[in-house]
Amino acid sequence: MTPSGTDTEVVVVGGGAMGSSAAWHLARRGREVTLLERFDPGHAHGASHGASRNFNLAYSEPTHVAMLLESQLAWRELEAETGASLLAQVGLVDHGDDAGHEEVRDALGAVGIPSESVPAEAARRRWPGIRFETRALYLPTAGRLHADAAVRAFQQAAAARGAVVRHRTPVRASASNAAIACTSRPTPARSWRATWS
Ligand SMILES: Cc1cc2nc3c(=O)[nH]c(=O)nc-3n(C[C@H](O)[C@H](O)[C@H](O)COP(=O)(O)OP(=O)(O)OC[C@H]3O[C@@H](n4cnc5c(N)ncnc54)[C@H](O)[C@@H]3O)c2cc1C
Prior knowledge:
By secondary structure, the chain is of the alpha/beta class. Helix content is about 30%, strand content about 25%.
């Protein structure tokens, strides 16, 4: 370790949705975590900013379907830990190229996730603001995820469980022996070393 270095079990580089989620999950498992994000909280330079993302359930691969089930629970757990309102299961309509809808319905049905195949004419009557040219796949438990609030909540929940969350800390280099070197602006260069293996 360099004189200005810090040991921690895990260093997570990048505080977008994925890194922030990873930090929370690791902290929940009792790991000592440091999350390093190069920009300010709420920045719009990555992929995770903004008010909404689709919480889309239209997947048929078993791995994805298992993750869908797990993620619904995890979002509710995050909401319960932080008091934030993140996931609105207002339903989602998938239409256009409907190839694969039956596979999706079979896969979701097998794990109890509801779906409905709606002919184009019926879909036009049901959702008059949308122009349907193919049948639609309606997923009543899919919906909308508040992206900005989710990143905030992940970081808040991770910090509440002991994670160190550092913004304005761009990682400039990392080494194969799990050492991560950073230049933390405006403070002098620092490094963190991940000790978990
Ligand atoms: C327009 C758009 C629409 C989308 N719609 C949907 C949708 O409807 N449904 C859905 O599920 N997904 C959607 N996605 C995808 C989803 O938003 C992304 O998969 C997700 O946000 C990716 O998160 P991330 O943490 O991997 O990446 P990012 O949010 O980009 O986070 C990476 C973070 O790492 C930081 N970073 C990078 N390099 C360093 C470094 N050297 N040192 C320190 N920090 C660093 C960055 O600053 C950034 O904060 C959409 C994406 C976009 C762009």
